[in-house]
Amino acid sequence: MANGFQIVVCASIVPDPLQTLEPAAGANGPGLKNEMMLPAVLDPWAAAGLYEAANLAAKQAGSKVYLVSLGPKAKLQQVMMTVAQKVPFELVAVDGPLGGFTDAQATAAALAEAIAAIPGLERERMLLFGGWESASRGAGVTMQVVGERLGVTDQFQGVDQITVDADGSFEVLERVEGGKHQVSVCAGAPAVLGWATGSLPEPRNNPQVGMANMRGVMPALQKAKSVKLDANGLSYVSVSLPKQQRETRLVKDMPEDEIAREIVAWIEE
Amino acid sequence: MASTTVSKVGAMLTLPGDAVRQILWRFSDRFDLQMLVQSARAVARGPVARMVAAGERNTHEWTPAKAEMMETFDRAGITAAFMEPEEGGFISGPKNLALALAAFELAWVDGGAATASLAGFLALAPIHERGTAEQSAHYMALAAPPREGEERKTMRGAFALTEPIPYVGVDTGMLSGRVRVAEWKDGEEPMLQVEKRGRFITNIACANFATAAVDSGDARIKGSCVIILEETDEGTFDRGTPTKKLVHQLSSTGDPIFSLKVPANRIVGGYVVKDGVIVPNYTHSEVIEAVFRRTRVTVGVMTSAKLLSAVEPVIRYQRGRFRGAESIKEGSLRYDQGIQQREDALQRLVDVWASGEASASLGFAAARLFDELDPLERLKAALMVERGVSGSRAEMKALKESETKALELLNGNLTEERRAELEADTLVQFVLKDAAANVLCPATKLWNTGEGTRQMREAVSLMGGYGITEDCPGYLANKWMDAQLEATYEGPEAVQRRQLTITMTSELFLAQFRGWIKEMRGIASERPGTGACTLATAMTMWLWTLNYTQKGKDADGNKLYHGQRQGVTFALADALCWLLAVRCQILDVQELEARGGDDAVVSEGLAETLQFFSDLCHTQSARASGEVSRICAELVYGYNRHPAWDAEGHKACFLSEELDEYEGFIPGILSVATDVVSEGMHPVKAGPCAGCAGSADFLRLQNKLATCLTGSRLAKDRAAETVLKVMIPEALDYPA
Ligand SMILES: Cc1cc2nc3c(=O)[nH]c(=O)nc-3n(C[C@H](O)[C@H](O)[C@H](O)COP(=O)(O)OP(=O)(O)OC[C@H]3O[C@@H](n4cnc5c(N)ncnc54)[C@H](O)[C@@H]3O)c2cc1C
């Protein structure tokens, strides 16, 4: 790969998973109670994509990582205080609404527009990374639509691994049923990769990396374009949280095999 | 126009998040600090919490896991937070607030982890504050974690002042450690022999160097100094046995023995040779004064973190206390609220929370003040050199004029021009901030840790039996005990009270304090409901009492305010701290009100958040006023001898025959006269009611203070409503 990749990672922010998430009706449809006030994190699937992107960029000389994120910019800023410490990237911020209840089509359109406007972005070097789904709502289509809108039709979903060859072609492992992976080889960029978990641990915070990123993060937030996302006729009949189930039984000295058998039986029920 | 109606807003919606804290503690425009906070938090709630949960606190020994924790600090940028960018750090400029924030985050989970990181800074601080340029460059660079590609280990340090009994403890002058000349060849650096034994020295297990306080044991060395000892120096660098401490076990503590030969250029701050005698540029007292001044604030903030960290676990425990019982149906009040159905449970947590907020506000205000003071201090030092002033006494003299100007600035009716001129005067700014810092630092260390420990006990109580087990979420029992160490090391409470005894009576501080009373009245009129008015009255009472004790005498004619009379001076120091803490708390809430609306995250539910924080201020202000009123009343009345039922005492009494006579022309006197002696019999009590000089003024103030408490319990009730209703996360973000 002569000049390296330009890896554009689309990642939204979602409420910290430990928070109490309670659906609540808002003026623009459903949302989460006090969502704006709850601490947020980078969407975990997309975050896996970001770490993989940084890892790939470090190995492919001349590569660069862009992080494109759509959310309320004040919240993006808070999340950046952690994310910016993880890996080097350039932020492209789009100021828009939070949440898992927006229309995926409208979100994808806004992201595609922001990506198309990145100065100096070369399609032939572009890899579009993101999550194959999201912690706030597994619509599972956003990345496909972003790709389509940008005319990138080589698409992979549920990706766990990318291995790049010297000629710029790469092999991708996509999750398929039964804990197996489908192996594909792609001739080269551009392509869309919707990440599952990848295999990299979350990088440690490193304020030195953060300070370097911050030089670009703050201006990016300041000039973030404001977007309104159309509902496109989408409406929700009802929203609810999955009910927590608790069935506790105290047992003593039960052999492991028997425990395993019981769990399997329970799952099959 | 000020409004006196308190709006009816509901309970605060969620626990205050980072965006709120950044405004309250004034770092919303400091991304370096925000990142440090996130980084330290990830370490605290990740690896550190897992160590505590795994029982790593159960051994006094230095374990591989504890050593690994230090490396984790390095990797997360916590160690480098003390360094300048050119030394390997990432924060430019003063770092007091930065270190306070990092310590706050670590202590949120474990005080020992915070101590282990801070002790390294403590070891470096003598070099940083008073070291020569070469010493500073050398040790700061080595103590910075290695950069990428660098093949070396982070150099770690310990600060060795305290010595085995009967030597250095509270009294830091009682040094037994000695430095002597070992060899001194003509034209060469003298070699010194250092003999020092330490007691309770933090980080000793992993230290590669120690900054040790020693006194001269040789006629060729003048006075005391702090000297740098390295593990590779010739002689003995024995780390000693680990201290069997019951607190902060993730940090190492031990009693080392040093017997080492080192070059004289290890004397912190360097030395000069005068008439064949090595004269260190700084005595050990001068060095430790510069060091503790800063590091003590950080310790105070650690205890604040504990109190605030207790809120969420207590709410979760109490709310869910009865869930799962067969008879408690989902949706019933008992199911939803648990112990929180009971008013006392709510109100006690309000007290813990309010104390936590007040102490954090005080601590961070002190840290910020030092951030402002640091560059001024450097400018002052340069000006002194320019003017040829050297030595602390000469400097004090030289600053007298600036002090007069500072008083003029505070008290005078000035022209705009003069005001601008004085405000732009570096030395005027220096003496003002210095006077305030000299009070805020010991106040933070004293009050945050002392009252913090008491309030941690309350928090533990709120968890019932669970509170004093290892399984308690949030490790509250550990934090309770740990807080006691924070009250002890780096100078126990007596040391802080002793310092306040002097600094709180400085004219420059008192002039600022008078200004603060006015400031609180101003806030009260603009924005009633924070308890600022109550506070202003309590501050007036404190000032009145200080003045009274400074002039007054006890029943035996002895001076009341006197360095040796700690019964008076220490009590007034305690009272002052309560006031300073609430003042900072109120100022922080003012800031939130002024700036919260501009932040999209904070502006959600801002009215509710502000109401709650104001109610906490009001609650805390009432508690502080109560303390101050009690302490001052004891001091004003307590040193007068109580009248007895003797001839002298009877002079103040009415005789019943007299009263009968008076009743004729003062109708009603019979019903108000208390001390009536009838047929030689007096009422059943110690003696006639006492009065004392000036008591009328004091009673007027006390009367006023009592009525100033109006509304404070309503505020507490409202705050309790938040404790009951505020949304909390599903689970604590660190393991128990
Ligand atoms: C875990 C731990 C870590 C420590 N780390 C370090 C370190 O890294 N480096 C270091 O040098 N030291 C360290 N210390 C020592 C610590 O600073 C001292 O314990 C502390 O200064 C008090 O000294 P002392 O224990 O000798 O108390 P003492 O001097 O014996 O005082 C005991 C008590 O007597 C009273 N008292 C004493 N003098 C007065 C007075 N003048 N007026 C009124 N009351 C008085 C006070 O109540 C005081 O608390 C550490 C201590 C501990 C426990």
For the record, what CATH class of the largest domain in chain B applies? Mainly Alpha
Dominant shape of chain A = globular
Order of strands, widest sheet of chain A: 11-10-9-12-8-1-6-7-13
Predict the CATH topology of chain A: Rossmann fold
Oligomer: heterodimer
Measured by DSSP, the beta-strand proportion of chain B falls in 5-15%
- Indicate the radius of gyration of chain A in whole angstroms: 20 Å
Distinct helical segment count of chain B:
24
In CATH, what is the homologous superfamily of the largest domain in chain B?
Answer: Butyryl-CoA Dehydrogenase, subunit A, domain 3
Number of helices of chain A: 6
Q: Specify the helix fraction band of chain A.
A: 25-40%
Low-pLDDT residue spans of chain B: 1-6
Q: Provide the domain count of chain A.
A: 1
Draw up the topology in text.
The complex is a heterodimer of chains A (269) and B (736).
Chain A lengths: L5 E5 L2 E3 L7 E4 L2 E4 L7 E3 L1 H16 L4 E8 L1 H11 L6 E6 L8 H13 L9 E6 L10 H8 L5 E10 L5 E7 L3 E7 L4 E5 L11 H16 L2 E2 L29 H13 L1
Parallel strand pairs in A: 1-6, 1-8, 6-7, 7-13, 8-12, 9-12
Antiparallel strand pairs in A: 2-5, 3-4, 9-10, 10-11
Helix pairs in contact in A: 2-5, 3-4
Chain B lengths: L17 H7 L6 H23 L10 H12 L20 H14 L1 H20 L2 H11 L13 E4 L17 E6 L7 E7 L3 E2 L6 E8 L8 E6 L3 E5 L14 E2 L2 E7 L7 E4 L2 E4 L3 H36 L13 H5 L5 H44 L5 H20 L4 H8 L2 H37 L13 H13 L4 H11 L3 H20 L5 H20 L14 H30 L4 H4 L2 H33 L8 H4 L3 E2 H8 L5 H4 L3 E2 L17 H14 L3 H14 L11
Parallel strand pairs in B: 1-5, 2-5, 12-13
Antiparallel strand pairs in B: 2-3, 3-9, 4-8, 5-6, 7-9, 10-11
Helix pairs in contact in B: 2-3, 2-4, 4-5, 4-7, 4-9, 5-6, 5-7, 7-9, 7-12, 7-13, 9-12, 9-17, 9-19, 9-24, 10-12, 10-15, 12-13, 12-14, 12-17, 14-17, 15-16, 16-17, 16-19, 16-23, 17-19, 19-23, 19-24
Bound molecules: flavin-adenine dinucleotide.
The site of flavin-adenine dinucleotide has 21 residues of chain B, from strand 1, strand 4 and helix 13.
